Structure formats: C-alpha cells, structure tokens
From TrEMBL, chains A, B:
InterPro entries: Tscrpt_reg_Rrf2, WH-like_DNA-bd_sf, WH_DNA-bd_sf. It comes from Lacihabitans soyangensis. It comes from the Bacteria. It holds the Pfam family Rrf2. This is Rrf2 family transcriptional regulator. GO terms for molecular function: DNA-binding transcription factor activity. PROSITE patterns: HTH_RRF2_2. GO terms for cellular component: cytosol.
Length: 151, 151
DNA sequence: TTTGATAAAGATATTAAGGTCTTTTATTCT
DNA sequence: AGAATAAAAGACCTTAATATCTTTATCAAA
C-alpha cells in the first residue's frame, strides 16, 4: 500500500517522538542503526520531513534531528502525502488509467470501501497515537529479523 | 496492493471469459489492443497463466488464447498467487522485516483487519463474478484514457 | 579563526517492475 | 514439403524504487 520509504519516514518520526527521545537531538547514524534502516537513505527521507516542517534539524557538532511543536500532532496522512502523494489512494486495482465510481473496473466497488477506510485511518491517526502504543509496550518499531524470529 | 502485472492478468482472463468471447480463440494482438496493455508483456503474463492451467492456448494459424473448463471458476486469489505470490498479504506496513500479531508494528492492528478482508474477497471472488458485472454492464475492463476523461 | 562534527546535497549504483524486440517452436494450410 | 501464422521463449531495454558514496554547507567549541 504505502511505500517502504514512507514506512521508514513514519518510523523515523516516531523514533524521535518517543518519550525517552523527544527531549534530545539524534544523529542520523544513531537513528538508522536503531531502526535498521540504511543510513544515507533515511537521511534523505528525514531531510524531506524537515523541509515540510514535520521535524527539525540542526547541523554541526551536537546537531541532529529532533521533534518540534508540530511533530507529535502530525496526522499520518500528512507523512504519506509528503512521501508517496495521495495518488496511491486512487490507483485502479486492475491497472487501468482511470477508475472511479462513474468509470469503475470490476473490482472497484469491492475494494473502494476498504481503501477509503485506510485513508480515513491515516487521517485520524497521529504520530502521538503510535508513540503511545510503543511507550505502553504493545508494539515495536525497530525489531530486526534476528530478534523477531526469537519470539 | 496487487501489482499492475497482476491486474493485467485478471483483465486478460476476464476478457477471454466474456460471453461474447468465450467460445473463440483470441490472438495476443487482439487482446492487448482491446485492453490497452503492451502486447508482448501481456503475452508473457498469459503464458504464465497457461502454465498454471488457468487458461489454454494453441500455437499456429487460427491459434490463440482461450478459456478452458477451469477458467471461469478460478478464484482471484489463485491469479494473485500465480503472479504476485501471497507474500503481499504479509508485508509490514512500516517496512520492518517481520510483522505479525506477536511482533506487531504500531500500525499492524489498525490495518490487519482490512488486509484480511481484502484477502478473503480475493478468495471468494471468481472470474465469473467479474464477468457478470461486465455482461450486466455496470463495470468496465478496457476503457482507455480518452474515453475515461470524456465521461 | 581553525577544526571537527554533522546535516544537506549531489552523484552514482543496484534492484525490481514494467516493457520491447528478436528468435524459436508448434501448427495449419496450400 | 514448404510457407504462413501464432504462441513460447529468450534477450534486452527503461523506469522507478531503493540504497550507497562523496562532497559541501553549517554550526559549535576550542
């Protein structure tokens, strides 16, 4: 549904917003290692988010990425829009150029409800909602394969 | 969700299964032109489907692709499995290696229900169901951009 | 005011999806 | 048998997503 890149973006923002992280700056190396995401790739993604004002950054010694007043209230749809664009919610399931209720493919009606449910969820969920799930401890951000298969 | 390739596959099968098409063989050129799909690319896809027994083909003069006894009863999930594999229903929304209810990402619970609904729909829908929608006239397979924007 | 740290930016590489072109194989018709 | 036709197969091309590497700009501290 959403791209891998967009997932990385959300995880990056949530990492910075966690209770134990939100009062400090974090270098890209630290974030990337913790989340197991390629460093420079994540760097570019976070740069995009800084440009959008979703997070902030400072260069130089003791610089890094950090949350701002807007960060935790950012709805996920805003991140999705920034990275993937909203077009992903309009693509035809069968790969036709156009697909809508007035020009539907045979799968349009079947899945359109589901798709708008996903869209609404992205509209309603904020970064803070994901942070809660992690702080409470019933969800994970950064587990890698080794750890995951141990469970 | 499913790949463009997989959408092409479904559209190809449905085309062959339409009331007016199901009693004849159809060359790849005819199918591709009607559906506005690149000819040789669709050719390869249909070859896959023939190997799986979902449709049939004959070479040579008056040859072409055509439905067999199995075609119209094929559940869509079988096509999805053939082209994309079932892995697409297990990928983590945030791009982590592993994601499941015992090892969930912060979005897992939010979207898992939706995802299994999609899976079940693909299990329950058969080619014949899509054919009906088209034969009845409330759905389209092959509209191209020109026509679509006219509406 | 130089040095070191760090994000930003740019260039390049890799991979996978999607798409094209050419050759081969099977079949039919003359 | 030979020619024509059409799918099958294989090689290759293009584009977009993902990833890496290098250089530049900015800042802080010594």
């Amino acid at each position: 549904m959403i791209s891998k890149t967009c997932g990385y973006a959300i995880r990056g923002i949530v990492f910075l917003s966690l209770e134990q992280n939100k009062s400090t700056k974090h270098g890209i190396l630290e974030i990337a290692e913790d989340l197991q995401i390629p460093q420079h790739f994540l760097g570019k993604i976070l740069q995009d988010l800084v440009r959008r004002g979703i997070i902030s950054s400072i260069k130089g010694p003791h610089g890094g990425f950090f949350v701002n007043s807007k960060t935790i209230d950012t709805p996920l749809i805003e991140v999705v829009e920034a990275i993937d664009g909203l077009g992903i919610f309009k693509k035809c399931f069968l790969g036709r150029e156009e697909c809508s209720s007035i020009n539907p493919c045979p799968l349009h009606d079947e899945f359109d409800g589901c798709r708008s449910a996903i869209f609404k969820t992205f509209e309603n969920l904020k970064i803070s909602d994901l942070v809660k799930k992690i702080d409470i401890g019933d969800s994970y951000l950064s587990l890698n394969k080794e750890f995951a298969t141990e469970i």
